[in-house]
Amino acid sequence: MKKRKKTFLFGLAILGIAFAFNPAQAQMATGEVLVNTCYSCHGTDGKSVGDMPTVAGKSKNFISKKLKDFKSGKKSSTVMMRITKGFSDSELDAIAAIMAKK
Ligand code: HEC
To answer: How do residues 71-80 score in pLDDT, each as one tens digit?
Structure first.
């Protein structure tokens, strides 16, 4: 029993170390990874070739506001409401910041 507890605590310590070292790296990747989900519809780097609106290069504020309006339902949409609901507001801001620079 005692040994099990020690093993458990050791496991927790390892997990703690893993989490302590990861956040900086994870945060750097977050926006870039999230924004990949947009390209299938809005074109590579958000530059659409079809009927889909081009998102790349629009201002961060414009994109961020649109995304939040889709999420809240203030702006009606067919798919964007479902997509934006999967992200927190700060993630939407991170996505908008990257899209604006494309
Ligand atoms: C499944 C396809 C699909 C994906 C994936 C998708 N979008 Fe959209 N997007 C649309 C459609 C369709 C519209 C038009 C509004 C509607 O009907 O939902 C739109 C509209 C928009 C608009 C408004 C453009 C304008 O000029 O009014 C923005 C901004 C936008 N999308 C950003 C994004 C971002 C950022 C992502 C990635 C998180 C994303 N979209 C992922 C299909 C998609």
So the answer is: 999 999 999 9
